[in-house]
Amino acid sequence: MQQRAIQTRHAILAAARTEFSLKGFHGARVDTIAAEAGVNKQRLYANFKNKAGLFAAVLKAVFTDLAREENELLKLSMRDIPRLTKLILDCYVSLHTRHPEFWRLLAWENLEGGQHSAGLAGLKDPVLTHLRRLYERGQKSGHFLKNVPFEGFIFNLLAVSYFMVSNRLTLKQSTGLDCSRPEVRKILCEAVVRQLRKDYK
Amino acid sequence: MQQRAIQTRHAILAAARTEFSLKGFHGARVDTIAAEAGVNKQRLYANFKNKAGLFAAVLKAVFTDLAREENELLKLSMRDIPRLTKLILDCYVSLHTRHPEFWRLLAWENLEGGQHSAGLAGLKDPVLTHLRRLYERGQKSGHFLKNVPFEGFIFNLLAVSYFMVSNRLTLKQSTGLDCSRPEVRKILCEAVVRQLRKDYK
Amino acid sequence: MQQRAIQTRHAILAAARTEFSLKGFHGARVDTIAAEAGVNKQRLYANFKNKAGLFAAVLKAVFTDLAREENELLKLSMRDIPRLTKLILDCYVSLHTRHPEFWRLLAWENLEGGQHSAGLAGLKDPVLTHLRRLYERGQKSGHFLKNVPFEGFIFNLLAVSYFMVSNRLTLKQSTGLDCSRPEVRKILCEAVVRQLRKDYK
Amino acid sequence: MQQRAIQTRHAILAAARTEFSLKGFHGARVDTIAAEAGVNKQRLYANFKNKAGLFAAVLKAVFTDLAREENELLKLSMRDIPRLTKLILDCYVSLHTRHPEFWRLLAWENLEGGQHSAGLAGLKDPVLTHLRRLYERGQKSGHFLKNVPFEGFIFNLLAVSYFMVSNRLTLKQSTGLDCSRPEVRKILCEAVVRQLRKDYK
DNA sequence: TATGAATGAGAATTCATTCAT
DNA sequence: CATGAATGAATTCTCATTCAT
Question: Dihedral angle at the C-alpha atoms of C194, C173, C26, D11, nearest 10 degrees?
């Protein structure tokens, strides 16, 4: 692929990421993406076959980017076990905050039936594998509950970090909690961490 | 309003609820809604001004319905405090399972900036107020952590119950967890309940 | 269907007949048809589902019209047996001359694989049945060859009449024969009739 | 022209012949032709100016090829006069069967007003001249009708052989005759030959 | 000569909305 | 109140052709 083509492809992907993230698959307009990318509409079809293909490519790119960010969790070691809950939670909250496309695309994808994300399976495996090992070590050393499997632990953290950013708007309306404000987030995160601590008292 | 007109309005709302829930605002088709409702398209415009108006009306109706369902939580009393976590979680999971429109519309709404749900604020206040009273009572009686405010407690439950159904599809792909299966849900819920229990050991 | 809708439908069909006949399925433009018919493009889709549906409808209409014209052959009786060859040939040549859409649509259809004409089978049966009866009577009365079945007889006439008009242009270039000129047609038709006569000498 | 360039040109022509024959001028795709030929699209424009030019070139090539095939008719001699009808008919039917591009391109050309084939006039003259001599010899020797000129004779054969293959699809639908089947073709050809024989009885 | 990248005009089809009865 | 007919602006996607290397 020529240099120019690579640039074009990147421009399209960038524009598409924004547009799809903002408006979802159906709401996004191919014309808008092309215009935003500053390329001819046809380039889009030549590169990605069609709108769905482009969406899938965007999904893949975003997931890949995210996986890279997530990798910092791989650096956690045995010594971090006592603070593991907080470290993981902070990582995910930060990640969702800095990359709103992530939760947004996830949300669109789930709403639209997961049609486009097939074939993305297992992208974040290594991180989860690593965390599982640490968690199970922590169970043995008495830092985590023996009767709570890793799945239950990580699931709670994933849910909380995602929900905190994704449902900000309606959450504010129904509960009054404004998760846009850092101090509110801090309170909620601390609450979660405290609740998940072994030395609950 | 005549009897017939009321029926028409109801038929439209019911069809629109299904269609919007399934495909979101942009994906939903006015023609489909009218056809599904068995009425002429013009009826739709006479009743709801336009597509956006109809969406707002659906949102309002769904939220009202849900608030009614949620009211069963008002029946909880002091005696239920020991099992409060489980009771609330089960209630929300069940609610999301039986009424997928709820999380779906919430998701659309959050993605689209909460444009349509303005003015729906405070609809579920009484329930939260009631639960807060029970929780704080529980804190005093030693059932809940003193340093975890009600907001943190309920937030965790809301997040987990929502996430479990809303992110089923991508969750399965990224973690392998299939939350469609009741046994998986049970495991996750139990894990959450165990983690949030005071008598953690 | 309302009066207005009927008019619309007719206008579309008329315009489509011209356009498809002139340019074939692929060459014809939906926009052109709609413009020519003086209606909104969408009317076309509401009435005929899509371009292919419209083409099929046109084919059906043309075949029906033609069948009506062909019916004059049903008036032939026993007394016409001696001149049967000439009468049939003249009828078909005249028909193809007056309704060029017929051979043209046939030609497009054959070129494009007959996709659109499925379900038109048997439309001209009654005429062929009638002619077969006359021909077989003529065989017994010695007007036609005993060892030439009706199929062979009618096939020759169909071929000649069709070819004469359909292949005018290339025929002129390759043989010099200009079938546009009535006198040339007359010569060719007479030749065919003479060749097909029993009393060949 | 270099060896390589000649190969390219041939590859394009071969691919174009297939594509145009199958889908006609409008239905054919330049991309498909280039891909099928295994060359860059630009090669196509460098060699043939544009799509129409390529079509004309294909037409010319096909007609030339066909003329070559037709030349076997030049081998016919006086001794073949008694079976002349059958020999010519068989030759043309065989030719149309083996080279469907021929009738197809003829058909497209006639439908589209003969725009592309101008300048191809007289390509098959020598064959027709030869056959005319044989036929007129046969008329004198009593093998053919004195009052049927050569034009009438050859026209009937051209029409029948062309129609048999070109109108197969619609013919089957309107008459039930399936000219794809060799036995049906045989029956029809025999019928034609019998009808055109002098010794009609 | 040869090629991958790029384009603008246009192709079919769909949609939310309004008109006329 | 109710409906079938109608519309114009989009929307996705394609095509023949040209550019730049």
Answer: 120
Tell me what pLDDT residue C198 has. 61
- Residue D144 has phi, psi (to 5 degrees) of -130, 160
Query: Both tokens of residue A95?
Result: 């990640």
Q: Is the pLDDT of residue B45 over 90?
A: yes
Give me the CA A159–C1' F6 separation in Å, rounded: 50
Distance A123 CA to E12 C1' (A): 39
Tell whether C77 is within 8 A of chain D (Cβ).
no
Are C44 and C129 contacting, i.e. CB atoms less than 8 angstroms apart? Answer: no
Q: What is the pLDDT of residues C131-142, one digit of tens each?
A: 999 999 999 998
Question: B41-48 vs B3-27: helix axis angle to the nearest 10?
Answer: 90
Residues of C in contact with D120 (CB under 8 A): 173
Q: Whole-angstrom Cα distance, residue B172 to residue B175?
A: 6
Which residues in chain D have Cβ-Cβ distances shorter than 8 Å to C153? 191, 195
Rounded CA-CA distance A30/C5 in Å is 35
Measured CA to C1', what is the nucleotide nearest D5?
E1
**pLDDT, tens digit, for every residue of A93-131?**
999 999 999 999 999 989 888 877 776 765 657 899 999
- Nearest residue to E14 (CA, C1')? C42
Is A30 within 7 A of strand F by CB distance? yes
CA-to-C1' distance for A50 and F14, Å?
A: 12
**C-beta within 7 A of nucleic chain E, residues 24-63 of A:** 39-43, 46
Integer angstrom CA distances of residue C160 from C119, C130, C185:
26, 20, 11
Report the candidate in D135, D127, D138 with the shortest Cα–Cα distance to residue D151. Answer: D135
Q: How far apart are CA A32 and CA A44, in angstroms?
A: 11
Q: How far apart are CA C105 and CA D25, in angstroms?
A: 16
Domain residue ranges in chain D: 1-48, 60-195
> pLDDT per residue over B147-179, tens digit each?
899 999 999 999 999 999 999 998 988 888 999
DSSP string, B11-34: HHHHHHHHHHHHHHHHH--HHHHH
Name the minimum distance, in Å, from the CA of B135 to any CA of chain A.
Answer: 14
- Enumerate neighbours of A (3 or more CB pairs within 8 A): B
Cβ within 8 Å of residue B72, ≥6 positions away: B91
Fold of D60-195: Tetracycline Repressor; domain 2 (1.10.357)
Q: Which fold has domain A1-48?
A: Arc Repressor Mutant, subunit A (1.10.10)
CA–CA distance, D140 with A153 (Å, rounded to integer) = 106
Fold agreement between D1-48 and D60-195: no
Check if the beta carbon of residue B73 is closer than 8 Å to that of residue B128: no
| Cα R_g (chain B), whole angstroms | 20
C44 CA to F8 C1' in angstroms comes to: 15
Q: Which residues of C touch D195 (CB under 8 A)?
A: 145, 148, 152-153, 156, 195-196
Give the number of other CB atoms < 10 A from CB of residue B115. 12
Nucleotides of chain E within 7 Å of a protein C-beta?
1-21
- Is residue A168 helix, strand or coil? helix
Chain B residues within 8 A of A142 when measuring between CB atoms? none
Secondary structure letter of residue B180 according to DSSP: T
